[in-house]
Amino acid sequence: MRIFKEIQSIQNWCKEQKVQGRKIGLVPTMGYLHEGHLELVREARKHCDIVVVSIFVNPTQFGVGEDFEVYPRDFQRDSSLLEREQVDAIFAPTAGEMYLPDFSSWVEVTGEITAKLCGASRPGHFRGVTTVCTKLFNICLPDLAFFGQKDAQQAMVLEKMVRDLNFPLQIIRVPIVREADGLAMSSRNVYLDAEDRKQALVLNQALEQAEKAIRDGERDAGRIKQLLQEIIGSSPRAEIDYAEIYDAYDLADIQQIDRKVLMALAVKFGKTRLIDNRLVEV
Amino acid sequence: MRIFKEIQSIQNWCKEQKVQGRKIGLVPTMGYLHEGHLELVREARKHCDIVVVSIFVNPTQFGVGEDFEVYPRDFQRDSSLLEREQVDAIFAPTAGEMYLPDFSSWVEVTGEITAKLCGASRPGHFRGVTTVCTKLFNICLPDLAFFGQKDAQQAMVLEKMVRDLNFPLQIIRVPIVREADGLAMSSRNVYLDAEDRKQALVLNQALEQAEKAIRDGERDAGRIKQLLQEIIGSSPRAEIDYAEIYDAYDLADIQQIDRKVLMALAVKFGKTRLIDNRLVEV
Predict the structure, then answer these.
(1) Looking at this predicted complex, what is its ipTM?
(2) Which sign does the torsion angle of CA A13, A17, A18, A20 carry?
(3) pLDDT in tens, A3-38
(4) Is residue B34 flagged as an active site residue?
(5) What is the pLDDT averaged over residues A38-46?
(6) What CATH number has the domain spanning A187-275?
(7) Contact B100/A at CB under 8 A
(8) B104–A168: do the CB atoms touch at under 8 Å?
(9) pTM above the 0.95 mark?
(10) Which residues does chain B have within 8 Å of residue A163's beta carbon, measured at their own beta carbons?
(11) Cα B92–Cα B97–Cα B99 angle in degrees, nearest 5
């Protein structure tokens, strides 16, 4: 397994792979890997000749007062995990390597798709995500890029960016991986104390019950939103950032559940903000 | 020579070329080709195995009230000229092919480099240029992309975009091609009536005399700017949009001419806006 720190060297290496006709899979991560990330890697391993995992805690996607400085990092552990998954290369640049002092070029997806949900709660977040992914795509030249369904809006935004700007690659979404008790895996789960960890189960429970209500015939989006809020509200420690139901393709508002919908949650437990979601097609 | 109208088909074709180890040169144009464009093509022919010329009058780089609708177009003539230059492929998409109805992704270089000169006169122009060039780069997968020094600020902005976003390609600037009497070649020269055509020579004359003044020892940027304005002002039909001298790398303001500088002009003759420029290194 190769470990690259410099843009130029991995870009040259990836160019060589392409000339040899090899299919490159990229798994962009911020490190502190869990089973969710490893599922992305395994999916990439299945479909590609070369698997590249990037580990980069990207400063431009964190807002003021967010957890950039304290975001958990453990490169040694990450690289052993990736070696075990037979990854071909890790790309782990510094922030200074990725953003030169006079950096000033941005990629932005505009419209409802970035204005709602995490786009509303975290101004500038998706601009940071689309910009860094543009850079990673240009550096690693993937044929396929793998993202978790856990960050549903991120996957939607990147799919739109790839479509609008004609990146020569395909985004592959990989299903959410959950702990045995249903909590969606996240590097941020490490922040939770024992009581928050217990109460955080309410996210998946709310999504499950809301899906069941839809399956049982409920078609009123407003009532599903209310149900989500009630169930999450039953946890005394949960502070809802959003609990919404939108069109799963473009986050358009819906009244009636008559197409594929995304139920999306962001809930704070103390300082820790967790997200979860579920797609339902009727 | 292949003619492609569809993104998917030329992107697939370019991918095949790359797998075969061929070096692709891209010459992005808005058509209505003149010797300046053909110089770009010849330069590409010299350095690349495959030369792709795009012909696309890009609506997103024109402002309200600009000449998008009347911009000259002549595909038959353009394609014969390119065939003669042994171009391998033309990419000539429609606006609808390039911009789907829900298009909403933009690439923007921010800062002085896009705020000054044409960035000030034509708000949104460079956002349109960087967005369409991102698309063309992603579609045609060039190793080298050729741009004219005539659009000096455009070349600077694209070089910055490529550097900041790590596009796997190099921008090659090709010197300005001039008519025998010194007028810089431009598709927009066709708009000029006989009298404007004569008076438009003042642009190159101003640049020549300003360069001579620098070579003769003038180091005060303000005085050079004044000289440019005086010479252009001597033409009764010329209406100055800008006549400036800046740092040639980033368009920073300068007082003293102690590095490589860009003298840049935009001047209207009636409804026709012409640009010209000259780099001077002391």
Answers:
(1) 0.96
(2) positive
(3) 999 999 999 999 999 999 999 999 999 999 999 999
(4) no
(5) 98
(6) 3.30.1300.10
(7) yes
(8) no
(9) yes
(10) 100
(11) 120
